[in-house]
Amino acid sequence: MAMFSQNPLMNGPNYSFNEAPRVNAPEGARQHRFDPYTDNGGSTLAIAGADFAIMAGDTRLTSGYSINSRYHPKVFKIGGTTADQKDATLVLSVVGFMADGEALKEKLDSICKMYRYRHGKAMSVEACARRLSIILYQKRFFPYYAYAILGGLDEQGKGAVYSYDPVGSYEREQCRAGGAAASLIMPFLDNQVNFKNQYEPGSGEGHALQERERRPLTRAEVEILVKDAFDGAVERHIEVGDGLQMMVVTATGIEEIYLPLKKD
Amino acid sequence: MFRNNYDNDSVTFSPQGRIFQVEYAAEAVKQGSVVVGIASKTHAVLVAIKRNAEELSSYQKKLFPIDEHVGIAIAGLTSDARVLSNFMKQQCLAHRLTYGRDMPVRSLIDLIGDKAQVNTQHLGKRPYGVGLLVAGVDERGGPHLFEFQPSGMTEEMVAFAIGARSQMARTYLEKNVEKFAECGREELIAHGLKALKESLVQDRELTVENTSVGVVGVTGEGAKRVVEPFKVFDGQDVAAWIEAVADDKEGGDDAEAEAGGDAPAPAGETMEVDE
Amino acid sequence: MDHRPQNWGRPRDDVYGAYDGSYLQSSGPKQATQSPIVTGTSVIALKFKDGVVMAADNLASYGSLARFTDVPRLRSFAETSVIGFGGDVSDMQYLNRHLTDLSIDEAYAAPSSTDTTTSPGAGTLNAANLHKYLQKLLYSRRNNFDPLWNQILVAGLDSSEAPFLASVDMRGTAFTSPSLATGFGAALAQPIMRRYAETDEQAAQLSREEAVKIIKECMKVLYYRDARSLDKYSLAVVTKAGVEISEDEQLEQQSWAFAERIKGYGTQTV
Hints:
The structure holds 3 protein chains of 3 kinds.
Chain A: H1 8-11, E1 43-48, E2 53-58, E3 61-63, E4 66-69, E5 75-78, E6 90-96, H2 98-119, H3 125-138, E7 146-153, E8 159-164, E9 170-173, E10 175-179, H4 182-192, H5 219-236, E11 243-250, E12 253-260
Antiparallel strand pairs in A: 1-2, 1-10, 2-11, 3-4, 5-6, 6-7, 7-8, 8-9, 11-12
Helix pairs in contact in A: 2-3, 4-5
Chain B: H1 20-31, E1 35-39, E2 43-49, E3 63-67, E4 70-76, H2 78-99, H3 105-118, E5 130-138, E6 142-148, E7 154-156, E8 159-162, H4 166-180, H5 185-198, E9 211-219, E10 226-233, H6 239-244, H7 266-271
Antiparallel strand pairs in B: 1-2, 1-8, 2-9, 3-4, 4-5, 5-6, 6-7, 9-10
Helix pairs in contact in B: 4-5
Chain C: H1 13-16, E1 38-40, E2 43-48, E3 51-57, E4 60-62, E5 65-68, E6 74-77, E7 81-88, H2 89-109, H3 127-143, E8 150-157, E9 163-168, E10 174-176, E11 179-181, H4 185-188, H5 190-196, H6 200-203, H7 208-225, E12 232-239, E13 242-250
Antiparallel strand pairs in C: 1-4, 1-7, 2-3, 2-11, 3-12, 4-5, 6-7, 7-8, 8-9, 9-10, 12-13
């Protein structure tokens, strides 16, 4: 019926398409909204020891069911004087949306470099940890979609691990897993690093049960623990695999270790 | 009070076509203690005399690292130099972040040249009161040495000296200019220190307290390219070098040494109108 | 019958609804690309001993319409790198202009333009530098909610003159691998390429001829199975010596015999 109304404005395009009536949809509903985030999978893990800290991450980069790359590091040295980070003392791991994660890494690294330039010394892990929190919170309403973990040695030379959520909440911990397989690895860590749910055999029942005595793990133990954690995660999570990259922070520097993981 | 009516600001030419404020800024460079820079095919070195305000005070820094492949030596107002140094540091960081490479030294110099020129053309601004020697390496021809003047003039040099009594150092450099290209790291530092000695007043000596040495280098090309990052050496680290050039008196060119202050500064020349 | 000339030849409003002219609105708030319009499909690339091979077909599709059949989607940069574009073609053309400007600026600054003793592009941006730059560009555009709707492959040599191949997408996600493919290629071509070059070490065993053969094979598989593809394509090889791009390759030795047994390809109706 409407097409016979002879009223071009009501009935269809006039001389200009601009004068055509809008469709009866709310503004913007036609448009496919651009989603600025993706999840690139992968997992990270950090454990603090008495005089060392180990940061680890798998090297697979995914989008959906595709493996984009089998070697894409998630663990980075931070705050060296040169681009090759030979004299760095801190390590940052990021997982989640890698473009944000890497932007975060580069921002923190620039800040550490400016700090060194202005103060003539490297940034302490405590200071860097606070600064990282601030960087994350500054983008509270368009967050870096990345789960960060910062590792290093504190002023007493003890291993330090700081973990973050994407908007900057942080705390210092003994160990932390992040990313796709965090929920698979974290309970294993609770049990193996913090000795949760481990009791002295035959010490009784109920309240009489005595917890197993906690002791700091040695570096060799932790390295095995990290590999075991990732081997487990690879079996049960499709986004984790290909390679395991570990950075061991000690007083003498940062040692990098690469171990293969299953590529399936 | 004033030398003339045309030096109240940096936007007014004198009838002779000069901008006095800019020339005065060039004079500030000559107040600073001397710095020498030399580039060879593999290295660029900066050497400097540090001054202490009085016996009990510390020595004013003269060499600053900018990025791993660039360093500067300053003569003039240290605080102005810090502004430029910060700016250069930021630019190098930004370039590295954007392209993942060392910033080409020429690009960096052009930036500070443009920045300084703006100060010579706007009312209410003041030219920088500092001159720089910039040493760096990049993939565009290896080591480079650049001179920067408050006028905004920048020029690539084989070897150069700026600062108080620097004419004597330049005379030494001019005499030996042919040798520099083939010099190794240690030879180049030795030449730098010898040039520096020429500029010292009668009873002064190079000491571990007052001497600074900065070195940056590059060897090989393509896959085999290795950069020696810019590093400043002070104190006991320079003792051996000073020892090596001590009292060998091989130069003996006191005869033609001129008084540094009277020589026309390059900056003055560039500000003159071509005829 | 609608007799007004301005309506002749247009879809009938009573059948299709009124034309939505808001697409053509030039006033109002600035509009960012919200979805790609004219698009290119897969780009594939594979490293070999002394360089990288890359290919992409010459088709620019308008939805399911094969709209433009002569649009090369590979370009060289400063005689040192090859860039391949998937995704929106207008954004590709914007980037193309931008990169041309960048390469001109670089050519003026680098000494190699006058010095013939150095290898091509010495002192100018290499493929790794260029990839980093494009990553920053695309990431900053996504931060402004004004993305460049492309996935890009960059091939060439890095600062140590080793073959370099990397990808960056519209969100700024960047990664490298011995072989890479965008779009459908990620599902169809990547498994074939990985059979020959799972690791960099394996890729370093491939000769140029082998790599070209693998890429041509992949282009054929893509043409068989990707409905938005074309049998005319561009092929680029980048080595230390420079860049060679051929923009009028034709898929050879096609065999559609397999299609007869597959529903949807031929004339079968059941």
